[in-house]
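Workshop exercise sheet. Pairs work together: one partner reads the sequence aloud, the other fills in the structure field after running the prediction. Swap roles for the next sheet.
Pair: D.N. / O.F.
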Amino acid sequence: MTEEEIESERYYNSRLCLDCVDRRIPPPSKLYWRVRAVFVLYGSMKDSKTQRPLFNDAAWGKARNVLKEILLSFYVDLYLKRIKPDGSAEKNKYGMDLIECMRGIPQCKSKNIHRC
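Structure field:
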């Protein structure tokens, strides 16, 4: 596809991106530092109206808990390739693998994780 065709597909067919663009959560060792950087950068910034920091003591406590959960691997990748009955990956008309989100789907209903 040309750049123009890709832009057109992104604009008129957002489902293409949702079905085919791989979305990955980095491993805890990388995710921790990225999330921590956001907390540090924005947490001490001041609200333009109240002139108070965006994070108060309670918010910093919650931020520390999120960082602990990241290190404990509580945040996992929920995107898997769609699988056909023969075990191969489903593809769209462009030959790109289709993906789906496993969030909210019981594992026994997900054909990618466990076949019932």
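Discussion prompt: The longest helix spans residues 28-43. What would you look at next?
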